[in-house]
Structure formats: structure tokens, C-alpha cells
Design goal:
It is a single chain. With about 325 residues, the protein is mainly α. It has one domain. About 55% of the residues lie in helices and about 5% in strands. The strands form four sheets. A two-stranded antiparallel ribbon has the order 1-2. The protein has a two-stranded antiparallel sheet with strand order 3-4. Helix 2 (about 55-75) packs across helix 6 (about 225-260) and helix 5 (about 190-220) runs antiparallel to helix 6 (about 225-260). The relative contact order is 0.13. It is a multi-pass membrane protein.
Length: about 325
């Protein structure tokens, strides 16, 4: 046998390489085009809107200030000045909780490395890259590795990327324009406190305004001054706004309290809906962090009465990032 007979023609080698590459591409597309890919719509989402959130923060601060001034003016004209410390304390608690929610950073996911094989990490990168190139949203919750194509790094279990904040946020709940940033691991507690104090203050202010209106109608209708008439109208409008605002925020308070009792963020609630629509190509179990309603609340709000009610009080303990109750990430594999 001659030496030349053991060589394979170059064209044949290239053809074989092309065939192998085509098979890999086809296999990759079959994997990545599974129904665990959620196609994005073309409407502008809240994360993609590039508005200035500080405008809404100023608006919210202005509404809170006007609510306080109008209620305070009405209150000092009522024969109940001796109970002023109660509504004043409630307002201070609301104002501080709002300030803390606005100024406390939610927390960034930095330099996270998942505990899984290189193959699983590579699959995560390919999933996200393919999804970004083809306009898909990846439903990858429960996978051992999740990759962010914007930060170009891996993200932890409960982290999600926010385009407006420009980073992956730890235990991201949602981006709230009224606080100018995301609600995440570090400011979730203050956000919940604010949601409770705002309706309480709104209803308290509405009662004070109505009481003031009744008193004015009983004593001041005979000789109404322009200033008196103006404040009566202003108080009536303020009472209506406070009632509407309290009802709207109370519904949000109920929703976020329910999620907190399940130890579930808004992002995970959305992912659950998407996950349940899938038939295959998804993690075998949807992750659960539920360890009981009380402990779920304590994981965010703290364990003492002061930490639940006082936004300036800190227990100086790290927030507990609970692992899965049924299955750990390290044991999840793609079927």
C-alpha cells in the first residue's frame, strides 16, 4: 500500500466538517427553539422605557407633602389637637419608609458563579445568546445556570436583569417608577412598609378632611370668606384623592403581601405563568422558597416588631436567601 493511499482528500474532509457543523447547528436549534422560549411582543415594556424616574419620585413626594399640609391645617382647626401625635407619627413612618425605599439600593448581582458543570454553563450562554438574537424571552427559571447577555455574566437564582437600572438585581421584584429604581433584596422591606403606611395615612387624612368640612359647614356658612371657601373646596378634593389613592394602593398592598407570604417575587410569579404553559424543554421542577408564611415574612421584614414597623430600625442580619425546598439547582438537569 502506498503512502499516498492513507490520506483523505481535502474536499472530503471539509465536506465532513460541514456536515458535522450542520448537524450541530440543527441539534442546537431543535434544543433552543423548544417551547420554553417565550416570544417577546413588540410593545414597549416598562423595562425598555427610557424615561426619567426621578420625575415620578418628585411627583410622589409632592403628593405626600400636599396631603400632609392639607391634613395638618384641617387638624389644627378641630377640637382634637391632643391626639395629634398619632397621625403625626404615622406620617413620619410613611415618609421615612418612602425615603429609605428610594435611597436604598436594591442590590446588584456581581461576579456570581453557579455551581454546575461547564457544559451547563455553556448551555446557559447559548440559550440566552440565541434568545437575544431571535427576539425570545428565555424561561430559564430552575436551570442550574442562568446567563445575562447584557451584563455578560451569570446571575444568581433569584436575580433578574433590569434595563433601566442597567444591572442584574438581587431578588428582583419589579422596577417601580415611584421610587425611581427596582424593588430588590435590600429595599423590599421599606417598600412593603410604605405600601402599608400610605393607605393608613390616606384614610386618616380623609377622615380629618371630612371632619373639617362638616365643622365648617356647621359654623361657617353664614359668613364665608374667599379663603374659607377655597380651603373647603381644596379639602373636598383632597379627601376624594386620598380615598382613591388609598383604595388603589391597598389593592397593591394585598397583592404584594400575598406574594411575600409565599416567599415569591413578582418576577417569579410571572415566570410561573410562563412555566406552566410549557410542555417540555424546561427544568423538572419550578423552584419553591416557601418555608411557611411567618418565616417568609421574617426573611424580608425581620423577626422583631420594631423591624416590621420602624424603617430606621435594622436587626443587622443578612437577608436569608433560601434554597429550594424540593430540589437544589445543582441537581437539576435539562431533559
Amino acid at each position: 500500500m502506498s503512502q499516498s493511499s492513507i490520506f483523505i482528500p481535502v474536499d472530503e474532509i471539509k465536506a465532513k466538517e460541514r456536515s458535522i457543523q450542520q448537524d450541530r447547528n440543527k441539534m442546537r436549534e431543535n434544543l433552543l427553539k423548544g417551547p420554553y422560549l417565550y416570544r417577546k411582543n413588540h410593545n414597549t415594556s416598562s423595562d425598555e422605557f427610557k424615561g426619567n424616574d426621578m420625575i415620578t419620585v418628585y411627583i410622589a413626594s409632592g403628593i405626600i407633602s400636599v396631603m400632609f399640609i392639607s391634613s395638618f391645617y384641617a387638624f389644627i382647626h378641630l377640637p382634637i389637637i391632643w391626639i395629634m401625635p398619632i397621625p403625626l407619627t404615622l406620617f413620619i413612618l410613611m415618609a421615612i419608609s418612602y425615603y429609605k425605599a428610594v435611597t436604598t439600593k436594591p442590590g446588584k448581582c456581581i461576579n456570581f458563579q453557579p455551581k454546575c458543570s461547564k457544559e451547563e454553563k455553556q448551555q446557559a450562554i447559548e440559550r440566552e445568546t440565541f434568545g437575544k438574537e431571535h427576539g425570545f424571552k428565555i424561561v430559564d427559571i430552575g436551570y442550574p445556570a442562568r446567563y445575562c447577555t447584557y451584563c455578560k455574566s451569570f446571575r444568581s437564582e433569584r436575580s433578574y436583569h433590569c434595563k433601566k437600572c442597567g444591572c442584574c438585581v438581587l431578588r428582583r421584584d419589579h422596577h417601580c417608577p415611584w421610587i425611581g429604581q427596582c424593588v430588590g433584596q435590600n429595599n423590599h422591606r421599606y417598600f412593603i412598609q410604605f405600601l402599608y403606611y400610605l393607605p393608613i395615612n390616606g384614610i386618616t387624612g380623609m377622615i380629618i378632611q371630612i371632619w373639617y368640612l362638616v365643622k365648617q359647614m356647621q359654623t361657617g356658612l353664614g359668613e364665608p370668606s374667599p379663603g374659607n371657601v377655597f380651603f373647603i373646596i381644596f379639602s373636598l378634593i383632597s379627601a376624594m384623592i386620598m380615598f382613591a389613592m388609598s383604595c388603589a394602593v391597598a389593592s397593591l398592598t394585598y397583592h404584594y403581601s400575598y406574594l411575600l407570604s409565599k416567599n415569591m417575587s413578582s418576577m417569579e410569579d410571572i415566570e410561573l405563568v410562563r412555566y406552566e404553559c410549557l410542555s417540555h424543554h424546561k427544568a423538572p421542577h419550578f423552584p419553591s422558597y416557601d418555608i411557611g408564611a411567618l418565616k417568609n415574612w421574617q426573611s424580608i421584614m425581620g423577626t422583631s416588631f420594631l423591624s416590621w414597623t420602624c424603617p430606621w430600625y435594622n436587626e443587622n442580619k443578612e437577608l436569608n436567601q433560601h434554597s429550594f425546598t424540593e430540589i437544589s439547582l445543582s441537581s437539576i438537569h435539562i431533559d
